[in-house]
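Chapter summary example: a protein plus adenosine-5'-tetraphosphate.
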Amino acid sequence: MKRVLSGIQPTADSFHLGNYLGAIKQWVALQDTHDAFYCVVDLHSLTVDVDPKLMTERTLKSVAQLIALGLDPNRCTIFVQSHIHQHNQLAWIMECLAGFGEASRMTQFKDKSQKAGSDRTTVGLFTYPLLQAADIMLYQANLVPVGEDQRQHIELTRDLGQRFNSRYGDTLVVPEPYIMKAGAKINDLQDPTAKMSKSAASQSGVIDILDEPSINIKKIKSAVTDTGREVTFDEAEKPGISNLITILSSLTSKSQSEIEKEFSGKGYGDFKGEVAQAVADYFSPIRNRSLELLTSKSELAEIIKAGAKKAEVVAEATLAKVYKNLGLLPRKGSE
Ligand code: AQP
């Protein structure tokens, strides 16, 4: 079976619709066809200010949401990144392999550091893609299901994997990105040219899957739409309506053209009402299941512990191979 690896940061009280449609929906599907490893990347979330109490809560909430969204701990490995110290060890190797200029070209770093300002930009934010490369190649993953915003980081991972292999012999699997055509970039409902994001300045355009259905219904009904009345997919001219068509189509079995036909001549109000209801119907049971799972923290802890046990075996085997091929002297008694 080919292997899959992906991760998500515990940086908010809830995942948003973009996280689900861009990434987690694919994670769920791939657990049946691949040897799948999914992690809550808590170390990545240290690149911005941390509230220790929130960090613990959000990590557990992340695991609960992943399970409620359809990950089955019996069919995939769910774990927490900081439980596997080999991530940091391989990350150092990646840092020594990557060029400073190469890392400086990452657009996410450029955007986020520009927003934060140089005093609040951490070195960790700069080296983030190198830790991500380590996350992926530590598991010798063939596929990495992510949203469009991560494409450049996966390209960097591939370059580093190829570089390592050509310098030190075939060691790391060079992964392929797995990015859907539809849903890979869900946009903010109030600014439909920007991606929906946990760190958006305003939450009014972000659909949080753990929010009460009535809140999300209201947000969708107030989504910014475009001039005109026709419900047609046109990302350049109608980014707001196109975003809502993508959301409706991804949550139901309706294609773009079926949606266009269904709402032909009906106007935006009816259409937004239907999208709002579809989102509420889809996520309401998932919200309930997440909240239920969170009442049993010891059960979640067991799942996380079992995940770490499985992940560690793979991680240690890769790291040992990497160290050996780099010529690092083995610790006496560990050869
Ligand atoms: N708007 C989006 N549309 C599609 N996919 C998205 N992803 C994120 N936003 C969208 C995908 O979700 C996965 C997990 O994301 P993450 O938590 O690791 O980091 P992120 O991309 O930084 O998420 P946010 O919400 O945008 O957080 P901030 O505000 O911190 O930048 C990834 O696969 C990502 O592609």
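Key point: The CA atoms of residues 156 and 239 lie 30 Å apart.
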